[in-house]
Design goal:
Blueprint: E1 8-10, E2 17-19, E3 29-30, E4 33-34, E5 36-37
Antiparallel strand pairs: 1-2, 1-5, 3-4
C-alpha cells in the first residue's frame, strides 16, 4: 500500500498516530504491524 500525502495513520495496538508528509511506496508500521488509515470525522450538519 502506498503512503498518501496528508493522511493520518493510527496503530491498532498502542494508538500512536502519524501524519504522512512525504508519499511513497511501502507501509507505515508500529508495534510490528501495519498502521491503518484513520477515518475522517463526519462534519456536523447545519440543519
Amino acid at each position: 500500500m502506498a503512503n498518501q500525502l496528508g493522511k493520518r495513520y493510527i496503530c491498532g495496538s498502542c494508538g500512536t498516530e502519524v501524519l504522512c508528509n512525504k508519499p511513497g511506496t511501502g507501509a507505515v508500521e508500529c508495534c510490528g504491524e501495519e498502521m491503518k488509515l484513520k477515518e475522517a470525522k463526519p462534519v456536523p450538519s447545519s440543519d
